[in-house]
Write the structure tokens for this entry.
Amino acid sequence: MNKYLSLSPEVEQALQTGKPVVALESTIISHGMPYPQNVETALRVEQTIRDNGAVPATIAIIGGKLKAGCTPEEIEYLGKKGQAVIKASRRDLPVLIARGEDGATTVTTTMIIAAMAGIRIFATGGIGGVHRGAETTMDISADLEELAQTPVMVICAGAKSILDLGLTLEYLETKGVPVLGYGTEELPAFYTRHSGFKVDYRIDSPEELAAAFRAKMEMGLHGGILVTNPIPEEYSMPADVINKAIDAAIEESHKLGIKGKQTTPFLLAKIKDLTGGDSLASNIQLVLNNARLAAKTAVALAQ
Ligand code: PSU
Ligand code: MN
């Protein structure tokens, strides 16, 4: 194990004894939701994973250490500090670690650290992708490259239409990343169950998810698998409400000249304001739903 990695005693013990473990990211805490809902949600997600038979490993960078398994105090710290924590992608790791700084891990860096620790299953809300207008901005999330190269199964609720969903799927196809729909043939669009785009395969059980992941590993194919799990019907948002908010948020980001790593956090916060908090309630529910599926899949993979 490399000297930069630091496992919590619980996560270390679980990995040594072959118990199921689920990785969780920390950018969703610091940049994805406001305080204190971010901290409450992170702790509820951990509890949901335990309730479904797995050990949660919230991943973050603290004092220059790659942590797999944060304490509730560390989660509170990251949540309270919010956007003042550096949003750490792959390119940020060398300097942050060398300087002993803190960082919130995105899907990219959570995958990297999970793989270093030997954790195979990761639950989150949404991934980054190809942004609308990427043909001129070239704004394509590093999350897609990470899915192409790092052996972790990422369970999300699909991609929201702050992204160009069609181009995101094309990119994943080029990179050889399987995009699976849990109980659906249609790519879910995060706040809503429908996008009009098709996934590669519909999968109906955690066992089948685990089997696909195992096959990919055993063949020695590089990279991960993306599982898209639709938000439960009762928490999904009306498509017109959310799409109007997304369009308005994107327009505002252009007006303010928001660019680069600030784009996604800006849009998420704006959408939450424009929907009067309804999108936050949906966001919390879909993360809990993904945590349940991830824990069950980790249990199946450990068998
Ligand atoms: N999408 C969400 N919530 C999030 C993110 C994306 O619905 O919190 C975060 C994740 O950490 C993801 C990152 O990895 O934003 C992508 O950022 P970028 O688009 O800058 O790559
Ligand atoms: Mn970007």
Notes: The first helix runs from residue 9 to 16. The mean pLDDT is 97. The pocket of pseudouridine-5'-monophosphate (ligand 1) is lined by residues 25, 27-28, 31-32, 106-107, 125-128, 141-143, 160, 261, 264, 268 (CB under 6 Å). The first strand starts at residue 5 and ends at 7.
